[in-house]
């Protein structure tokens, strides 16, 4: 998530001309303590990152209102889905 925040920030600055792009994490609430463990850990990483204009969480309802220049979204069950897919695709299954 940290790398995606940096990549999105660089893209917004270099390709879109946004000065000091604002980065937010998509969550179920704006409060930093909202979300599952993965969301909480991602928030902590982004908040501590040097050179990233991280402004905290945002909710989906605020996206079309211009909540941020860069929005990080966690696919909360993605690791489980990737592992399940890899297991089902492995030889002998």
Write a structural description.
Helices cover 40% and strands 13% of the residues. It has one domain. It is globular, with a radius of gyration of 16 Å. With 93 residues, the chain is α/β, with parallel strands linked by helices. The model has no long low-confidence stretch (mean pLDDT 81). Strand 1, helix 2 and strand 2 form a beta-alpha-beta unit.
Which helices and strands, and how do they pair?
Elements: H1 2-14, E1 23-26, H2 37-48, E2 54-58, E3 70-72, H3 78-89
Parallel strand pairs: 1-2, 1-3
Distance between the termini: 32 Å
Q: Please report the number of helical segments.
A: 3
User: How many discrete domains?
Assistant: 1
Secondary structural class:
alpha/beta
Task: From the alpha carbons, calculate the radius of gyration and give it in angstroms.
Answer: 16 Å
Spans of at least 5 consecutive residues with low confidence: none
- Placed side by side, the strands forming the largest sheet appear as 2-1-3
Major sheet size, sense and barrel closure: 3 strands, parallel
Strand content: 5-15%
Helix content: 25-40%
Shape: globular
The averaged pLDDT comes out at 81
The total strand number stands at 3
Which sequence of SSEs, written as H and E, runs from N to C? HEHEEH
Task: Summarize this structure as a short list of keywords or feature phrases.
93 residues; 3 helices; 3 strands; 13% strand; globular
Short note summarizing the structure:
This protein is of the alpha/beta class and 93 residues long. It has 3 helices and 3 strands. The model has no long low-confidence stretch (mean pLDDT 81).
């Amino acid at each position: 998530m940290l790398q995606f925040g940096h990549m999105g920030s660089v893209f917004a600055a270099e390709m879109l001309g946004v000065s000091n792009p604002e980065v937010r994490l998509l969550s179920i609430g704006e409060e930093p303590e909202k979300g599952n463990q993965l969301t909480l850990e991602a928030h902590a990483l982004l908040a501590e990152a040097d050179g990233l204009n991280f402004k905290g969480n945002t909710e989906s309802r605020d996206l079309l209102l211009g909540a941020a220049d860069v929005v990080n979204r966690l696919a909360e069950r993605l690791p489980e889905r990737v592992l399940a897919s890899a297991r089902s695709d492995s030889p002998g299954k």
